From TrEMBL:
Cross-referenced SUPFAM superfamilies: GntR ligand-binding domain-like, Winged helix' DNA-binding domain
Pfam families: FCD (PF07729), GntR (PF00392)
Name the UniProt record assigns to this protein: GntR family transcriptional regulator
Annotated CDD domains: WHTH_GntR
Domain of life: Bacteria
Record organism: Microbacterium bandirmense
C-alpha cells in the first residue's frame, strides 16, 4: 500500500516551506533542521517533515547526518566552481537551443517574466524579483526542446537557484535579462553564446562574495 495522499501533500508543503526558507536565507548554511520543531511550527506530524528533509537531501541543499540533526548544506569555494562550470555549459546550451526553437508564445512568456521581474524590482520586492529571475532561466531550459537537458536542469535547479540566484542589484539583473530576451527575439545565436556566460559570471561573483562574507 502507498502513502496516504494527504500525507504526500503535507510533505510537499513542508518541503516547499523549508526550501523557501533556505533560498531566502531564513535558514542559513549549517543551521539544524530539527524535526519536532519544524513539525510544531508548521502544525504537522513528524512524518511529513522527515519526508521533506529527505527530498531536500536528494536536491542537494540539506545534509543528513546519522544519529544527529540534518543541517542546511554549507558550500565550499570548490563546490561553487564545480557548479558554475556545469551551469555555464548547461544554460548556454539551453539559451542557444531556445533561441533557435522558441515560438511567439514562448517569447511572450519570457517577456511576461521579465516584466514581472521588473515590477518586483521597482517595488523593492527582492524575493519576488529573484523568483521571476529564476523562472526566466527555467523557462529558457523548457523552451530548449531538449528533454535530456530539461531533466538534468530539474535535478540541479534547487542548488543552482540557491547558489546563484541572489543578485543584490535587481535593476541590473532585469537589464541583463532584457538584453538576452532581445537577442532571443532576433534569433541571434552567436550573441547568446557571449551573453549567457557573461551574465552567469556576474551571478558567480555575487555568490563568491556571499561565501566569503559568511566566513
Amino acid at each position: 500500500m502507498g502513502n496516504h495522499p494527504s500525507a504526500d501533500l503535507e510533505s510537499v508543503r513542508v518541503a516547499t516551506a523549508l526550501r523557501d526558507d533556505i533560498m531566502l536565507g531564513r535558514r542559513p548554511p549549517g543551521s539544524r533542521l530539527i524535526e519536532r520543531d519544524i513539525a510544531a511550527e508548521l502544525r504537522v506530524s513528524r512524518l511529513p517533515v522527515r519526508e521533506a528533509i529527505r527530498a531536500l537531501v536528494a536536491e542537494g541543499v540539506v545534509v543528513a547526518r546519522p544519529r544527529t540533526w540534518a543541517v542546511v548544506r554549507e558550500f565550499s569555494s570548490r563546490d561553487l566552481q564545480d557548479f558554475a562550470e556545469v551551469r555555464e555549459a548547461m544554460e548556454t546550451l539551453a539559451f542557444v537551443l531556445a533561441t533557435k526553437r522558441i515560438d511567439a508564445e514562448g517569447i511572450a512568456r519570457m517577456e511576461a517574466l521579465v516584466a514581472r521581474e521588473e515590477q518586483a524590482a521597482l517595488s523593492g520586492d527582492a524575493d519576488a524579483a529573484h523568483e521571476a529571475s529564476a523562472a526566466f532561466h527555467i523557462a529558457a531550459v523548457e523552451h530548449s526542446g531538449n528533454s535530456m537537458l530539461i531533466e538534468l536542469a530539474a535535478s540541479l535547479v534547487t542548488r543552482l537557484r540557491w547558489l546563484f540566484g541572489q543578485h543584490e542589484d535587481l535593476g541590473q539583473m532585469v537589464s541583463a535579462h532584457r538584453v538576452i530576451l532581445d537577442a532571443m527575439r532576433l534569433r541571434d545565436v552567436e550573441a547568446m553564446r557571449t551573453l549567457i556566460p557573461a551574465h552567469l559570471a556576474e551571478g558567480r561573483a555575487a555568490a563568491e562574495e556571499r561565501l566569503h562574507q559568511r566566513r
